[in-house]
């Protein structure tokens, strides 16, 4: 039974319950009601929710605390370090903008203002990620009966226009010039040039390239297996890939295969001469015993782009090699389903969204072909 009291000019309710985890009696309360009937109605709603399985211990949990616990329970250890860091950053953002506020007290108007304010200084894609993370948490909170409505629903995706994928890849002439320049520097113990070549010819993420080991290279079938990532910055250990759809085995062309063969020959000679033993068999282990960082790879990449005559405005990062790879294949008529699997995307829809600018051009080309075929009927 709820306890209803007047505090000053306002009314409050307090409901006592036994915590099933600690066995102790606890209470949940809320004040600020202008009239006693309003406090009674709110208390009855909580009691009804309690009878339906609501966890009363969570009714007073703050937005920030619930989000932090949610990512610990459901996200950490299941995604790449980069993705986990974005979840943690969102948690810090929530704590900063909703200090001490209970999750069940956050309303749509307040959350909309938060998203609009965040969008003033951040890219649209960043705003989209934050909102999707919070929405995922809200769904779990609703399942626990902590909340009964989703204040993220139909929130407009605001934010500043980010750099379009169309601006993040090299065209065919630039790619050829870059690879020609890169090949000039492919002499072990320098491994970064080999990484750049393999990145451009596989479309793999940098952490996937860094994780490649010799036992993942199939010389007979000209395939490489990408089934883990590498934490080159901190632990120097393998780690899970970006998501469950990332692991894949892909074919590589003769240029990539021959580059790997040459690298292994030179690496083996160096290891034999200097009595180096590598039980892990990292393909791109450098002279200092470590795999280069993404930052180091990007420095070399920019230098090669500059030498290849690519202007600073058109230069890309290592991740841009992934977009270049996909864009090259799509623009030359490669099946979108094949490209999607080669990149390790969740599904074709993801690939189509990222590379819509190229697919539009391909559709126009196909329409022209279709009309020519139809014109030939009669």
UniProtKB/TrEMBL annotation:
* Coiled-coil spans in chain: none
- BP terms from Gene Ontology: DNA integration; DNA recombination
Q: Which residues form the Tyr recombinase domain?
A: 165-369
Q: What InterPro entries would the database entry show?
A: AP2-like_int_N (IPR028259), CB (IPR044068), DNA_brk_join_enz (IPR011010), Integrase-like_cat_sf (IPR013762), Integrase_catalytic (IPR002104), Integrase_recombinase_N (IPR010998), Tyrosine_recombinase_XerCD (IPR050090)
Annotated signal peptide = none
Under Gene Ontology molecular function, one entry of this record is: DNA binding
Residues in Core-binding (CB) domain copies: 61-142
| PROSITE patterns linked to this entry | CB (PS51900), TYR_RECOMBINASE (PS51898)
Q: Looking at the record's lineage, which domain of life comes first?
A: Bacteria
Q: Which Pfam families match?
A: Arm-DNA-bind_4, Phage_integrase
Q: Which SUPFAM superfamilies match?
A: DNA breaking-rejoining enzymes
The protein's UniProt keywords, in alphabetical order, are: DNA recombination, DNA-binding
State the family named in the UniProt similarity comment for this chain.
Answer: Belongs to the 'phage' integrase family.
Q: What is this protein called?
A: Tyrosine-type recombinase/integrase
Query: What is the scientific name of the source organism?
Result: Schleiferilactobacillus harbinensis
> Species lineage, top-down?
Bacteria, Bacillati, Bacillota, Bacilli, Lactobacillales
């Amino acid at each position: 039974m709820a306890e209803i009291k007047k505090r000053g000019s306002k009314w409050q309710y307090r409901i006592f319950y036994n915590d099933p985890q600690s066995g102790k009696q606890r209470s949940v309360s809320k004040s600020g009601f202008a009239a006693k009937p309003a406090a009674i109605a709110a208390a009855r709603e909580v009691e009804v929710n309690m009878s339906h399985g609501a966890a009363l211990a969570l009714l007073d949990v703050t937005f920030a605390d619930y989000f932090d616990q949610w990512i610990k329970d459901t996200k950490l250890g299941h995604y790449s370090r980069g993705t986990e860091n974005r979840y943690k950053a969102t948690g810090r953002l929530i704590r900063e903008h909703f200090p001490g506020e209970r999750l069940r007290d956050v309303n749509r108007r307040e959350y909309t203002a938060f998203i609009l304010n965040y969008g003033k200084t951040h890219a649209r894609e960043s705003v989209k990620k934050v909102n999707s993370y919070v929405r995922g948490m809200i769904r779990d909170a609703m399942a626990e009966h902590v909340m009964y409505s989703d204040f993220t629903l139909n929130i407009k995706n605001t934010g500043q226009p980010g750099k379009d994928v169309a601006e993040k890849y090299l065209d065919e002439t630039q790619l050829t010039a870059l690879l020609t320049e890169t090949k000039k520097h492919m002499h072990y113990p320098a491994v970064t040039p080999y990484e750049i070549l393999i990145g451009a010819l596989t479309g793999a993420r940098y952490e996937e390239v860094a994780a490649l080991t010799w036992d993942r290279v199939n010389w007979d079938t000209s395939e490489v297996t990408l089934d883990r990532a590498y934490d080159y910055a901190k632990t120097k250990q393998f780690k899970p890939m970006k998501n469950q759809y990332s692991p894949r085995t892909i074919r590589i062309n003769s240029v990539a295969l021959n580059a790997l063969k040459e690298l292994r020959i030179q690496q083996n000679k160096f290891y034999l001469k200097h009595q180096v033993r590598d039980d892990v068999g990292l393909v791109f282990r450098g002279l200092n015993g470590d795999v280069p960082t993404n930052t180091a790879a990007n420095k070399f990449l920019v230098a090669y782009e500059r030498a290849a005559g690519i202007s600073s405005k058109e230069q890309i990062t290592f991740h841009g090699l992934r977009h270049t790879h996909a864009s090259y294949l799509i623009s030359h008529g490669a099946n979108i389903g094949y490209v999607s699997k080669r990149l390790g995307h969740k599904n074709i829809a993801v690939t189509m969204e990222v590379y819509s600018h190229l697919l539009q051009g391909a559709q126009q080309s196909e329409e022209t072909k279709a009309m020519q075929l139809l014109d030939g009927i009669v």
